[in-house]
Amino acid sequence: MKLLNLNEGFFPIKLDFEQDSVEVPNIGDLSTKLKVKIEISKISKGILKCKGEIQGEFLDNCQKCLEKTTIKLDNTIDVVIKDIKEIYSDNSEEGEVHYQELEIFNLDTFLNEEIALLYPDFVKCSIECKENNEVLKEEKNLPFKKIRDLID
What we know:
Order of helices and strands: EEEEEEEEHHH
Number of strands: 8
Oligomer: single chain
Structural class: alpha+beta
Radius of gyration: 23 Å
């Protein structure tokens, strides 16, 4: 657990590290180290800006054919961080905002939330699975079809 006090210190805070595991439910298993490179800048009291990159590979099952597939996560992070006390009084429209107590800022919680947002909703293994997106239609159960066929 990495804890930071974002109310004190010198800004910008630059972090560049690797992580062996993540605690995000309903995603694949991390198969490589998660590389995190972020910079947290102070905009004003209680409002911070986090920019950076997150990279890693996850092993997951294709939701169509159930084969194991690799999901590459290589995204940028561009988030406003605000104190949790402002969650109900905040009416700004700044895009993506992460609320957490700034005095005891849990970096792991922040990263897990970002990974959950960046991870694909639907996992497909190959181009064929991605292109062949048609949903199999269930045949309707027509109980009197045989009788109609006999009458015709």
